[in-house]
């Protein structure tokens, strides 16, 4: 691609966790999509603006080690250009785009490859515009850790949802302050950084959270974070499996279920709001 050429993009969000989508089906448009370009696209003043970028590419066209079971690969980058293994809101937006474009068949399970393996999406009523449920896989609950913001330090549950999370139960979501910087965390536990969730109870099977995302700062929602929060809350509640939890985020609500066979299912909206071309 030359500096002056333009290429197509779409903009979408899931519970206001927003993304720039870059169709690059055969990997011929964007090369290796450098961090600098991702930062330019995600810039909310000089760019399109987003918490991350989703490159839409065929699994066969990208070297990731991901199996070829899924035709499409979600090449996700955080707003700072860094990679993450997985993005829960992003994969719903990615799936919505594929379904609306007729690139996958929403009437059956849709498989999408990620750096955390292949995920299965189900569209309500088999409709391309139906609510999307994602099988997020099996959570791993690791040793307790702690996180700090300013003078506050909280114990936190270390939950691996394919990407790393530290879940801290707090008295008030405002206790975490403005979250301009990443919360302090144990670097030995999280050598590659961590997504930090702050959680309060709203009622039985109902919590609310804020999140500071690795590589993107405080966002209005995080799907993998909501799953990590649900798992930590269900363990603390000694909740029966197959119970739905509602997780309220600043940008909306996600419904999460931890199944009897140890899978976490996340359901929520995914919206495309714009498309165009850019030379960024
Ligand atoms: N917003 C995402 C998570 C994106 C990746 C995360 N910032 C990380 O670095 O692991 C979600 O909806 O899960």
Radius of gyration: 18 Å
Q: Give the overall silhouette.
A: globular
The low-confidence runs, each spanning 5 or more residues with pLDDT under 50, are none
CATH architecture of the largest domain: Roll
Provide the β-strand percentage band.
35-45%
**Quaternary structure of the protein:** single chain
Integer count of domains: 2
Distance between the termini: 11 Å
Number of helices: 3
Number of strands: 18
What's the CATH H-level homologous superfamily of the largest domain?
Diaminopimelate Epimerase, Chain A, domain 1
CATH topology of the largest domain: Diaminopimelate Epimerase, Chain A, domain 1
The percent range for helix content is: 10-25%
What does the largest sheet look like?
18 strands, mixed
Averaged pLDDT: 96
Encode the helix/strand succession as letters: EEHEEHEEEEEEEEEEHEEEE
Structural class: mainly beta
CATH class of the largest domain: Alpha Beta
Site (Could be important to modulate the pK values of the two catalytic cysteine residues): 165, 213
Keywords: Amino-acid biosynthesis, Cytoplasm, Isomerase, Lysine biosynthesis
Protein name: Diaminopimelate epimerase
GO molecular function: diaminopimelate epimerase activity
